[in-house]
Amino acid sequence: MPETGRSVVGNGAVQPQGIWATWWQLLQRILGRRRLGAADASCCDLEGTEKHTRLRGEKDFESAVPNPGKKPNPRTDDPNFGKTGRGRFSAPNPVPSIRLLFHRDTALILWLCATPYAMWYCIQASIPQIYGPGYGFNDLEVGLSFLAGGGGVIFGGVIAGRLMDWSFKKTAIQAGFSPDKRKGIDISAFPIEKARSAASVPIMFVSMFAVGGFGWAVHTHSHPAIPLILQFFIGAKSTVLHQIYSALIVDIFPASPGTAGASNNICRCTLSAAIVAILHPVVSSIGYSWWFTLLALVEGLSGMVAVWTLRRKGWEWRKKRTANDDKGR
Q1: Residue 80 and residue 105: Cα distance in Å, rounded?
Q2: What is the reported pLDDT for 38?
Q3: pLDDT value of position 245
Q4: d(CA 92, CA 259)
Q5: How far apart, in Å, are the Cα atoms of 237 and each of 206, 300, 313?
Q6: pTM of the predicted structure, to 2 decimals
Q7: Are 86 and 8 within 8 A, CB to CB?
Q8: 16-62: pLDDT as tens digits
Q9: Using an 8 Å Cβ cutoff, are 242 and 88 in contact?
Q10: Rounded to 5 degrees, what are φ and ψ at 184?
């Protein structure tokens, strides 16, 4: 697949170089050079052989012995001159992504991105132990038990898009903007935090009972249909919340979506790794019932507080942060 990173190829006008180019692009360039060389050779007939040889010899000499008085011309030497995007490999810098963690509004959004993602990975990591030794499933049945959550993830992806469209239109009308997304909205003058988080609190409230109920259903060895159904709901709600706030972190950084996405990846993967790392030791001590009850309370209560704070202060903090960034430039 061709490179699409704006920092590399800009709006698509920049030619990717080196490792950023696909094998097909490299092959086209090699064949293009060969065709160009063949065309140069065919244009030289017998009458112009001597002249052509002399000119080629002069060019080869000039290229072999550089002229100290001749300066490189970036307009002709660089195919990407004047275009936005570097086009070639450069070492990634994680500092801008980490810096986003220290802004008040982005810290809340990244927490809201990371917690449902980590919760879902905790459920996934628990499935082999829950349905294997716990319910006596064989390897095939344990593998099939993942499908319940997978179906929830697919369902959540469909719901998330429609939910974001509905909440965006509703907030736009209330704020006096056109609900037609094709006309575009200036995010700096629009309460995008309220638009994205409109339905989050009810989802988080119900999620606390679903996650806690999953732990107690496993602890009491209820019929396996009960935890499987709860897996479906948890997968759906985790996908909905993660997609909503992943979209929001990119919304508030329209000029650097790659940096915002990288910061999201750092937070969600770090939190997921920490929770999965302590999963089995904690479950061995307090059991699945109290482990998932604890997770449900931490995720639900902290999430609802974060959403409430973001809806009240998020836009104000964003405007202050943007003003400070403009002054720093």
Answers
A1: 37
A2: 64
A3: 93
A4: 10
A5: 9, 12, 25
A6: 0.73
A7: yes
A8: 776 667 777 777 777 877 777 666 556 555 445 455 445 444 444 44
A9: no
A10: 80, 145
